[in-house]
Amino acid sequence: MRIRLVHIAMCPTLLVLTDFSAGANRSLKVAVNFAHLLEAQLVVLHVHRDSLLDPERFTGKLSGESYEVTMRALHSLVRQLPVPALAEVGQGLLPDVVADAIRRYHPLLVVLSRPDAENIPDELATTTALQLLRSSSFPLLVVPPATTKMTAPRHVLLAADGGEFGVDEHGDALRHVLAALHAPVTLVHVTESATHHTAAQAYETVAGAGLTRDLPRVSTSHICHASPAQGLLQAVAEQRADLLVVLARPRSVWGELFHRSVTAQLLLHSPVPVLVLPVQNAPARKRPPRPTETDGLLYSI
């Protein structure tokens, strides 16, 4: 059931997930600030799960509140927001409910909080963000549980691995968000070598995908670190960034070994919000014909 609280004209939309926790309330405040800058509306979504067949029914993770109580609580929460907003309660498994909301509202971003899993080994930790990335290819803004800054970002780091990639219409959404922030953007490239500086090449891959279009000058930074994730977190601390943008390739989310997934590590450990833009691997380039040597001459085969 949807609860329409105000008349909302056609404008950009941010889909915000809430479970009424303190972390979700922080992510909602961050979303409000983004909405101000983007002149966007919010759709605040709570997933109510009360099926006897739900796999987490007896794990203690689900709220025992009735559907009607949940509706009233969400209505009260959204009514206090200082931006145009729509409240919605969905029923079912979270990835399915979110996918349905995305189809209907076409949001720029899905905004959600990251649970506090600091004392849980990475291999055992699971987050809603990772579930959504594995079930869809939609941009996410993930707010860490300990964040204290709710204002709009003033310095953005954009992580690039140097490999070519492609973007779909969601690339336009990222450009729109970055342009609206009016914040300096620094492209960060991490390598193990202190002398092998390839940040300029990494910039070319990002510019080639069109992500720097309509942005002011984007600076570059090289970090020397054996771990890409730790190198990026080092850059966040050193440059006092308050938003980290990650380009997530399919293999970075579906890696065979969890500790090799840079995206997962950043989502679990970044002290600042992480904006994840799923991208596609660039199509393999056709190699030139392989030559063979005959009588000292090269012939193509």
What would you note in describing this structure?
The protein has 301 residues and is of the alpha/beta class. It is built from nine helices and 15 strands. It folds into two domains: 112 residues, Rossmann fold (3-Layer(aba) Sandwich); 126 residues, Rossmann fold (3-Layer(aba) Sandwich), CATH 3.40.50. The strands form three sheets. Strands 1-4-3-2-5-6-12-11-7-9-10 form an eleven-stranded mixed sheet, sandwiched between helices. It has a two-stranded antiparallel ribbon with strand order 8-13. Strands 14-15 form a two-stranded antiparallel sheet. It is globular and about 60 Å long. It starts with a strand and ends with a strand.
Using the 3D structure, state the CATH architecture of the largest domain: 3-Layer(aba) Sandwich
What pattern of helices and strands is seen along the backbone? EEHEHEHEHEEEHEHEHEHHEEEE
For the sheet with most strands, the description reads: 11 strands, mixed
Task: Calculate Rg over CA atoms.
Answer: 21 Å
Blueprint of the fold:
Elements: E1 2-4, E2 13-17, H1 22-38, E3 41-48, H2 67-79, E4 85-91, H3 94-105, E5 109-113, H4 128-135, E6 140-143, E7 156-159, E8 165-166, H5 170-181, E9 185-191, H6 199-208, E10 218-224, H7 228-238, E11 243-248, H8 250-253, H9 262-269, E12 274-278, E13 280-281, E14 291-294, E15 297-300
Parallel strand pairs: 2-3, 2-5, 3-4, 5-6, 7-9, 7-11, 9-10, 11-12
Antiparallel strand pairs: 1-4, 6-12, 8-13, 14-15
Helix pairs in contact: 7-9
